[in-house]
Specification:
Blueprint lengths: L1 E4 L17 E10 L1 E5 L4 E5 L6 E9 L4 H12 L5 E7 L5 E7 L7 E2 L13
Antiparallel strand pairs: 1-5, 2-5, 3-4, 3-8, 6-7
């Protein structure tokens, strides 16, 4: 079972500690047809109706025996179901994986054109 993360849970980012020792890094990849928004302290991934954007993130394999508890912990951290929903997405590398998608209509948040949270200073 895999998880795709694109913001504070990415490798070496502020919340990665929630996953440390519970996952194995597979690769950086992108999810197509999604847009990344700068929500301030964290990002939000939403469907891109124009189907032109991609979101860059890290793909991890969840360690055996960790899936249920890790997903419960991540759901709590991500504010499921109020702020985000956990959905299955397909990455450009072909992996079907869980990812967190913003569950609210975005209002006045700027898109990160590169789709990379680490490049959030260039949000427009």
């Amino acid at each position: 079972m895999n998880i795709f993360v694109y913001g504070t849970l990415r490798l070496d980012q502020s919340a990665f500690g929630l996953m440390r020792g519970r996952v194995n890094f597979l690769r950086s990849t992108r999810v197509p047809f999604m847009k990344l928004l700068n929500l301030g302290a964290f990002p939000g991934m939403i469907n891109d109706p124009a189907r032109e954007s991609t979101v860059l993130g890290d793909l991890f394999e969840i360690n055996d025996g960790e899936a249920v508890k890790l997903l419960e912990d991540l759901d709590f951290y991500e504010g499921v179901p109020d702020l985000y929903t956990r959905e299955i997405v397909k990455t450009l590398c072909g992996a079907q994986t869980y990812a967190y998608v913003l569950n609210r209509k975005p209002v006045q948040f700027k898109a990160i054109q590169s789709g990379d949270w680490l490049d959030r200073s260039e949000a427009v």
